[in-house]
Amino acid sequence: MTFEEIVHYRRSIRHYKALPIDPEKVKHCLELATLAPNSSNMQLWEFYHITDPEIIRKLAVACLNQGAAKTAQQLVVFVTRQDLYRKRAGDMLELSIQSTLQYSPEERVASRLRNRKRYYGFLMPFLYARFFGLLGWFRLMVANVLGLFRPIVYQVSENDMRVVVHKTCALAAQTFMLAMTNEGYDTCPMEGFDGRKARRILNLPFGAEINMIISCGIRDERGVWGERIRVPFEEVYKRI
Ligand SMILES: Cc1cc2nc3c(=O)[nH]c(=O)nc-3n(C[C@H](O)[C@H](O)[C@H](O)COP(=O)(O)O)c2cc1C
User: Fold this and answer.
1) pLDDT at site 121
2) Predicted pLDDT of residue 193
């Protein structure tokens, strides 16, 4: 399929055929999903690939018994891990130092290294840290002062940063769904689930949040709910 055909073919599927799908192909689609653009390349996500029928059954109940979950062959739970910000910033600092040393022209190495250290060594831990909302207020105060002198990002509250990690995770989810279509597999993204039950089933750590649960399988035509409908494009397209 061409990219355009993939985008047209992908639908949210609410009923799958009782045909197995290859977990290795699903895993490969998740590898592709890690190539999605993501904020500051912090990759504060995790993907729980569920192939165990018993866990799928339990998660389908947590997904409010939706047909999309009950008939799924496999599930993928997209999870945000804002709590891993220190580790990921450290990982990215190390990887970006290696990449700078390998690819940067000699005269740029020192300044790029300083830059990377400031970015991943200081700015990222500063932006992603949480403490009952207070650190967000502090960041907002700093942004407001700096904003008097130069353009600045004001979306730095703790809630704003939570939105950032969910945005990033959703981009990985969309990349995954398109990759699955490319494999001839179908998906349905779900946010209709009991988050507490789902967390318990997966035994997620405290700082993890479920972004969405994506069911996977091969479409049964009953699972395609009618023609695709969208509001008129002119209503959402603004050319400036
Ligand atoms: C974040 C998100 C959550 C969704 N949650 C559900 C859900 O819980 N159950 C469901 O059947 N569809 C769910 N959908 C699918 C949408 O209803 C669907 O994408 C929309 O109706 C457009 O249809 P299409 O995907 O076939 O183009 C969700 C989609 C997104 C992006």
Assistant:
1) 97
2) 98
Cα(83) to centroid(ligand 1), Å:
27
**Ligand 1, pocket-test mutation among 9, 188, 213, 227, most atoms within 8 A of CB:** 188
**Tokens found for residue 6:** 């993939």
Ligand 1 centroid distance, CA of 3 (Å): 20
> Measured from the CA of 68, which atom of ligand 1 is nearest?
11
- CA–CA separation, 6 and 16 (whole Å): 18
Closest to 49 measured CA to CA, from 37, 63, 36, 59? 59
What residue spans define the domains of the chain? 3-84+160-224
User: Which CATH superfamily does the domain covering 3-84+160-224 fall into?
Assistant: NADH Oxidase (3.40.109.10)
Chunked into runs of 10 residues, the chain (240 residues) has average pLDDT values of: 97 98 98 98 98 98 98 98 98 97 95 97 97 96 97 97 98 98 98 98 97 98 96 98
> Using CA positions, which residue lies closest to atom 29 of ligand 1?
189
Beta-ladder partners of 216: 74, 187
Q: How far is CA 225 from CA 9, 44, 56, 178, in A?
A: 13, 33, 23, 19
Ligand 1, atom 18, lies closest to the CA of 12
Which is the closest atom of ligand 1 to the Cα of 67?
11
End-to-end CA distance of the chain: 33
Q: Would the pTM of this model clear 0.85, i.e. be above it?
A: yes
Atom 26 in ligand 1: residue holding the nearest Cα: 11
